[in-house]
Amino acid sequence: MRILVPSETRPGEQRVAIVPQVVPKFTALGFEVHVQSGAGRHAFASDDAYRAAGATVIDEDHLAGAFESTDVIASVRPLDYQRASRLRKGTVTVSFLSPVGDIETIRGLRDAGATGLSFDVLPRISRAQSMDALSSQALVTGYRAALVGADRLPSFFPLFMTAAGTIQPAKVLVLGAGVAGLQAIATAKRLGAKVSAYDVRPASADEVKSMGATFVTLDLEALEGSGGYAREMT
Fold it and tell me: Residue 122's pLDDT is what?
């Protein structure tokens, strides 16, 4: 059985679905791993690293044939309609498919008779924890959000005391105390800001306080869902 890792085509996407360190896990199970040349260049994964790990690197000239003959396609973002519609019947795609917001890709998979597995709709239960791909990405998002905020703020995050005067620390409000929110709190705190946070789940107050932030209490309906997660608001 063959797995294909194509280059990402969505604007701004720099991730790659499979890194070289993971390739031996698939080959040990009997899979052939084919990687498009340059697929990992933005993720610091060179073609040589893939070859050393046991993958086959294919160039652009052979990509069309690879799409038509592969069994599984692993990508971060979903394939566009053009790629999805030319898959052979029975091919399985694995990605952050976003089935509600990417109708064209769904139509392409339907027209080709392919199956799409969406990692962003996996249930958050113990049995699926080993397949949780969202938490790691949410952590990076929270970290990055705090850095972008610090960069855009026309002042400073930390307290500065100098002979010329004192600059008070920035006040940062984080909305949501999930994985991304907690990481944003932690990063903003490390940068020296005074951090407050709000979440529709009152139970998250202890987590917010454990990060050194102030939990904002509002007289609103609590939206605590099962498993400690927030339920849908609409």
Answer: 81
Q: Crossing angle, helix 179-190 and helix 134-152, to 10 degrees?
A: 40
Burial call 81-116: b when 16+ CB within 10 Å, e when fewer: bebbbbbeeebbbbbbbeeeebeebbebbeebebeb
CA distance 140 to 17: 16
Cβ atoms 171, 196 nearer than 8 A: yes
B/e letters for 123-140, b = 16+ CB within 10 Å, e = fewer, are eeeeeeeeeeebeebbbe
Domain final residue pick, 121, 144, 167:
121
Write out pLDDT tens, residues 45-56: 999 999 999 999
Residues 8 and 114 in one domain: yes
Q: Which two tokens stand for residue 150?
A: 């610090």
- Does residue 127 lie within any of the structural domains? no
Q: Which two tokens stand for residue 20?
A: 């070289």
Q: Which ranges of 29-85 would DSSP assign to H, the alpha helix?
A: 47-53, 63-69, 81-85
What's the pLDDT tens digit per position in 170-206?
999 999 999 999 999 999 999 999 999 999 998 899 9
CATH number at residue 142: 3.40.50.720
Same domain, 7 and 117: yes
> Which range of residues forms the domain containing residue 202?
134-228
| Number of domains into which the chain is organized | 2
| DSSP percent split of the chain into helix, strand, coil, nearest 5 | 40, 20, 40
Just list the catalytic residues: 124, 129, 132, 135, 229
Q: Which residues of the chain have pLDDT under 50?
A: none
pTM recorded for the entire structure: 0.79
